[in-house]
């Protein structure tokens, strides 16, 4: 690259590229689903499974490769999640991981 564009750091290009791809996937999903008059049950079930799948991909490495604080927090959030609404579980889990890390676990 030459000229003014060569002075832009590569990190900025990566961020812009990721933003464009993220936006395209979101708009693409909306455009595809807007063509349906009614969402088929299998598609609905798959879309309902996405949040759990995303959380699993974020949480599983912490449980396997993290320290004791992460594993203990995940276990307690599993138990808490059976009794408390989702946002309450996130708040309790957040406070718990901060407390356990501050305690040095």
Describe the overall structure.
- With 105 residues, this protein is an all-alpha fold.
- It folds into 2 domains: 1-35; 49-105, no CATH class.
- Helix content is 77%, strand content 0%.
- It contains 4 helices and no strands.
- The chain has helices spanning 10-34, 41-65, 68-81, 86-102.
- Helix 2 packs antiparallel against helix 3 (68-81).
- The longest helix has 25 residues, at 10-34.
- It is flat.
- The model has no long low-confidence stretch (mean pLDDT 85).
Share of helix, binned: over 70%
Number of strands: 0
The description of the largest β-sheet is: none
Structural class: mainly alpha
Strand fraction: under 5%
Report the radius of gyration as a whole number of Å: 20 Å
The first-to-last residue Cα distance is 49 Å
Mean pLDDT: 85
Briefly, what is this?
With 105 residues, the chain is mostly helical. The protein has four helices and no strands.
List keywords for this structure.
mainly alpha; 105 residues; 4 helices
Task: Reconstruct the topology from this structure.
Blueprint lengths: L9 H25 L6 H25 L2 H14 L4 H17 L3
């Amino acid at each position: 690259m030459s000229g003014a564009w060569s002075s832009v750091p590569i990190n900025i290009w990566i961020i812009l590229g990721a933003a464009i791809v993220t936006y395209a996937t979101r708009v693409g999903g909306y455009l595809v689903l807007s063509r349906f008059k009614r969402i088929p049950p299998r598609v609905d079930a798959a879309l309902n499974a996405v949040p759990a799948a995303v959380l699993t991909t974020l949480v599983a490495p912490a449980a396997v490769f993290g320290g004791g604080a992460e594993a203990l927090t995940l276990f307690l959030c599993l138990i808490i999640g059976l009794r408390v609404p989702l946002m309450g579980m996130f708040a309790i889990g957040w406070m718990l991981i901060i407390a356990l890390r501050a305690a040095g676990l």
